Amino acid sequence: MRVNKLHTEQEDRPNLNYDPVAQEFLKLRHDLQRTFLSRSAYPGSITTLTDLTPANDLLSLAETRAHEITIPYLQYTKIGKVARKISQLPDSDIPGDEKYSFRERAGRLVVYWQGVMTSTLPWQGDLAEAVGQLALTPESG
Known about the structure:
By secondary structure, the chain is mostly helical. It contains eight helices and no strands. It has a single domain, classed as Up-down Bundle (Transcription Elongation Factor S-II, Chain A), CATH 1.20.930. α5 runs antiparallel to α7. The longest helix has 18 residues.
């Protein structure tokens, strides 16, 4: 009898559809995606914002709560993919990047969450410290 590998992997994952923390991170991912990656005339899109404070606040929230995101949350919300896309945007696509460093900050989140996924984060601390330590580990090169 053949066992469906995908089916058994899905059974092993926790159901996060009703997890309030997972839903908060999912909403954060949606908001980041709409703000930074939407090219439409969406009212909150970064291309339509004259005041970039809301976009800065969203990214700050992601940075503040980065340590709370576990592997199941990363897999469920796909917030790391959105952060990676933000970090890869061209200069011309993000107004105010020179002031707020949106792409650089998103890149730090990506590095941090890659460390979470590979379990190379044995410390507790702030994001900048964690990314600095991760850059020094031999596995990250």
